[in-house]
Specification:
The protein has about 250 residues and is of the alpha/beta class. It contains nine helices and eleven strands. Strand 9, helix 7 and strand 10 form a beta-alpha-beta unit.
Length: about 250
């Protein structure tokens, strides 16, 4: 089976436990204004500056990369993470990679918006150790304004994933000034998380501008204008509030 990716990153200590190999899928259903990987949004192969972005790869080729790093997984508790783009935009490809990894004893994780028919999520849950699920906002209209899609489907899927009890579920919240970087909006997300079963942690991810130069290389305008990264004092305040309301561990970054 073949899928389309735009990168494989080795030796990562983010996006899951331990040292990880991250496979970045190409294609996404959302168009988040703060996206730091705009080259991931369209499934088509693109040119970004002097670089071709996107290539087709087989499950066997992905697994060959995973096998090269197995020693690091054993020492650190790491494994493979599927990211994007959106993993659920290529569900069969994702499920096959996760199944192969699972059967070889490799810890598995995905980072996802959760925007898909639940059947696509359900097919990969048996092979998934850790699910990093983005919850960006509780208001459907504001969610659509900043991401291009409403959030009802995402919130319903969050409930179903939590109820399944089949994976370690971590909720991740990109904290973006002008969108959700207030005590009120983070409190609403924390209240929702409190209502879910089996959620282990909340990670608040401060907005950054690291991907800004990619937009010009793709011939696009940067959607966030001059919005700045939220300061540390605000992030600590939001963390304290989210932890208190949800009753679970909350951290900045992750």
């Amino acid at each position: 089976m073949t899928g389309r990716i735009f990168d494989i990153q080795r030796y990562s200590i983010h996006d899951g436990s331990g040292v990880r190999t991250i496979v970045f899928f190409k294609g996404c259903f959302l168009r988040c204004k703060w996206c730091c990987n705009p080259e991931s949004q369209r499934k088509e192969i693109e040119t970004m500056g002097d670089k071709t972005v996107g290539r087709d790869i087989t499950v066997a080729e992905v697994m060959a990369a995973v096998e090269r790093d197995r020693v690091y997984y054993r020492r650190s508790g790491g494994g493979i993470t599927l990211s994007g783009g959106e993993v659920l935009a290529q569900p069969d490809f994702a499920t096959n990679i996760l199944r192969e990894s699972w059967e070889k004893g490799v810890h598995t994780c995905i980072e996802s918006t959760g925007f898909a028919d639940f059947s696509k999520i359900e097919s990969l849950l048996p092979y998934l150790d850790e699910f990093l699920l983005d919850i960006k906002h509780m208001n459907p209209e504001k969610h659509e304004k900043f991401t291009g899609m409403r959030n009802e489907n995402i919130l319903e899927n969050a409930k179903k994933i939590a109820e399944s009890g089949k994976t370690k579920l971590i909720v991740r919240v990109p904290v973006v000034p002008g969108f959700n970087a207030t005590l009120e909006e983070i409190s609403e997300i924390a209240t929702f998380v409190k209502s879910l079963q089996n959620v282990k942690e909340i990670h608040l991810l401060p907005y950054h501008r690291y991907g800004e130069n990619k937009y010009s290389m793709l011939g696009r305008d940067y959607p966030m204008g001059d919005v700045s990264t939220p300061d540390n004092s605000l992030m600590e305040s939001l963390k304290t509030t989210a932890s208190k309301i949800s009753g679970i561990v909350c951290q900045v970054g992750g």
